[in-house]
Specification:
The chain is an alpha+beta fold and 330 residues long. Helices cover 30% and strands 29% of the residues. The protein is built from nine helices and 15 strands. The chain binds coenzyme A. The site of coenzyme A (COA) has 19 residues, from helix 2 and helix 6. Coenzyme A (COA) binds at residues 31, 35-36, 39-40, 114, 153-154, 157-158, 218, 220-221, 223-224, 257-258, 285, 316.
């Protein structure tokens, strides 16, 4: 089997136009703009309304990434949609493939909550590095607003909707410098979006469960503790694997859940705050979309330059967490 490297060669992002500010939230639940700002760093989030879909957001982000990579949809061999909120329970990646006209590509969904983009990046890399495929499109997209209890002030302040995408290609030099992925199902109850059905008897003695999903349930303090412990740890391991030190890192790009988590992780790793990529103030926690949206913003603003070393880490429900360190561009 052939073994090559990979390069991340294009990015794109899309968010719905409607914004919900902290001031709006004060009209909905017992909270204050100061409380939300101080505890999370979030000031507004974009919300998808019923007229739009995850597929549309993801397709828009994907087209931008394909254009930046100077490719056509027909050049894509593999599409992975990292999401926990597909429009179709059977998966939405195929609808995106069709919308793009990427008819050569095999497309499937991958669910790892807020770690989805990192898990997806590593999955794409495996297909590319074995030589199975040459060009992959990875989209992280979520519309968690569908599953938030908008009367629960502990969770409704955190989440927003959006999609981000990258194009990854096989490359003679490997720009994926290291990665680590982890899961711990014993802590699943800390953050969940559970199916909740009621029994429906079909015939005597034969019943099925039918229903819907319950809203997001979270123990904020436990998730906070998990993140500030596991994220520095996984980044340190990945740096070691990549034979790098923190001084080699140009950008720290964490899942955008909470500004306090980002600052705490940076402090623990002794990474200066000017290297921390953050846009959580404007988007909130967009789950699998947060890392590629922030990446795309910094690339388009010219801050991230070709060859820059980006240390990324995703963490969230599952519980899942992981890290990938890569060089931007070819
Ligand atoms: N507005 C005002 N008060 C609120 C509030 C809100 N939106 N939400 C909770 N509170 C109250 C609580 O009821 C509690 O009051 P009490 O002391 O009278 O019981 C008090 O604020 C402190 O609550 P606590 O849960 O200890 O707050 P916190 O400092 O841990 O902040 C989070 C809460 C959710 C911001 C924080 O725990 C967090 O960010 N956790 C990580 C969540 C996360 O990132 N999830 C996604 C991971 S992918």
């Amino acid at each position: 089997m052939q073994h090559t490297g990979i390069a991340v060669v294009g990015s794109g992002s899309a968010v719905p136009p409607t914004t919900l500010t902290n001031a709006h939230l004060c009209q909905m639940v017992d909270t204050s703009e100061e409380w939300i700002g101080e505890r999370t760093g979030i000031h507004q989030r974009h919300l998808n309304d019923g007229r739009s879909s995850l597929t549309e957001l993801a397709t828009k982000a994907a087209l931008e990434a394909i254009t930046m990579a100077k490719l056509q949809p027909m050049d894509i061999d593999l599409i992975i949609l990292a999401t926990s909120t597909a429009d179709d329970m059977f998966g939405s990646a195929s609808s995106i493939q069709f919308a793009l006209g990427a008819t050569r590509a095999v497309a499937f969904d991958l669910t790892a909550a807020c770690s989805g983009f990192i898990f997806g990046l590593v999955t794409c890399a495996q297909f590319l590095q074995t030589g199975t495929y040459g060009t992959a499109l990875l989209i992280g997209g979520d519309v968690l607003s569908r599953w938030v209890d908008w009367s629960d002030r502990r969770t409704c302040i955190l989440f927003g909707d959006g999609a981000g995408a990258v194009v990854i290609q096989s490359h003679p030099v490997n720009h994926l410098l290291g990665f680590e992925l982890h899961s711990d199902g014993s802590q699943n109850k800390s953050l969940s979006l559970k199916y909740g059905g009621t029994d429906h008897e079909l015939l005597e003695g034969i019943a099925v469960s039918q229903g819907n999903y319950k809203p997001i349930d979270m123990n904020g303090q436990e998730v906070y503790r998990f993140a500030v412990r596991r994220v520095p740890e996984v980044l340190e391991k990945t740096l070691l694997r990549a034979n790098l030190t923190v001084d080699d890192v140009d950008w720290l790009l964490l899942h955008q859940a909470n500004q306090r988590i980002m600052v705490a992780v940076a402090e623990r790793l002794h990474i200066p705050i000017h290297k921390v990529i953050s846009n959580v103030a404007r988007y909130g926690n967009t789950s699998a979309a947060s890392i590629p949206i922030a990446l795309d913003e910094f690339v388009r603003e010219g801050k991230i330059k070709t060859g820059d070393v980006i240390a990324t880490s995703g963490f969230g429900a599952g519980l899942t967490w992981g890290s990938a360190i890569f060089r931007w561009g070819t």
